[in-house]
Amino acid sequence: MVDNKIKDEDRVYLSKELSNYVDIIKKEYGSYIPNYKNEILNLIDNYEDQIVIENTGTISLYYGRDGKIHLPELAYEVIDKFKNNPLYGSDKNHSPSNGKDLVDNDNTFDDYIEHAIKIGISPRRYFSENLLHESMHFCGSDGVDPISEGLTELRTRELAKKYGLLTTGCGYPKEVRLVKKLENLFGKDICSKILFEKGFNNKKKIVLENLGEREANLFDRIFEVASKKFNDYMRTPYNGINGPYNKTKMYNNIDYSEVDYIIKKYETEQKSIEGINSMLDEGKNNFESFSSTKK
Fold it and tell me: Under a CB-based contact definition with an 8 Å cutoff, are residues 229 and 255 in contact?
């Protein structure tokens, strides 16, 4: 059983971080945050009430339906077991991203577990390294599906890099790579609108109204295929001391190669369409030039 005094001290410390994170997120993405969520955020005068440390049975942090961020009490027990590893605390300056770029890296959950052991992580540090991602959800970013989680993590890393904030740089690595490809096609603005919109149909509507039917159908297909790969992982409970290792093992089985194929096919078709349009424009210009010369 964890001493309540320790939990209270951690909660107070983390509530100050949450307050700071909310201000930064509102500054950067306030125009995307839904009005109702902005109104709720503006009414908060005590962030200590927005964080709950409890026995959830897992080691994962999450933003709950009650509008609060839930931190796992089990983390105290799991991290205590980490201390038995001979490498625990062997590199006090070890960074979560392990010397790689915070946004663009190939880190995995395995890398994060290695980091946690080498740095000799404490429960408070563990919560802090994962709090910014949950703060994005707290401010209205969508979750649960692979696109929303990937975009939430991407924006988390971008904020951390810009403002020097603490985050792992290891969360949802496969989803981050996926949404970066999506962002190359749709643009950052559209992807940020998708992130803060609830419901698949509403997200698809954003793509349809801003980019067109072809891109909306592409988003539909990517979302469908990626979700099938992602849902088993999200719906599986990772309980107990071995939860982090079981979670890592399950995550490693996710394969988005079919999604990569869909995107690659779209890009190839798009180049063909652009090539044909360019040829048509050139022919039109040549015809107009010829007609003008005849006159």
Answer: yes
d(CA 74, CA 193): 35
DSSP structure string for 86-135: TTTTS-TT--TTTTS-SSS----HHHHHHHHHHHT--HHHHHHHHHHHHH
DSSP string spanning 205-226? HHHHHHH-HHHHHHHHHHHHHH
Strand duo 62-63 + 51-54: pairing: unpaired
Q: Report strand pairing: 51-54 vs 69-72.
A: parallel
The C-alpha atoms of residue 266 and residue 162 are separated, in whole angstroms, by 32
What secondary structure letter does DSSP report for 58? B
**The two three-digit tokens of residue 4, written as one number:** 């309540």
Kindly report each contact of residues 247-252 with a partner whose C-beta sits within 8 Å and lies 24 or more positions away, as own/partner: 247/59, 247/60, 247/109, 248/108, 248/109, 248/110, 248/113, 251/108, 251/109, 251/174, 252/108, 252/109, 252/110
Mapping DSSP onto H, E and C, the string for 170-203 reads CCCHHHHHHHHHHHHHHCHHHHHHHHCCCCHHHH
For residue 87, the Cα-to-chain-centroid distance in whole angstroms is: 29
Asked if 97 and 105 count as a contact pair (C-beta separation under 8 A), the reply is yes
pTM: predicted TM-score of the whole model, two decimal places: 0.90
The position carrying tokens 């969520």 is: 37
Amino acid 144: pLDDT:
86
Q: Give the tens place of pLDDT for each residue, 251-260.
A: 989 999 999 9
Q: Who contacts 200 (Cβ-Cβ below 8 Å, separation ≥6)?
A: 145, 223
Interval 155-205: pLDDT, tens: 999 999 999 999 999 999 999 999 999 999 999 999 999 999 999 999 999
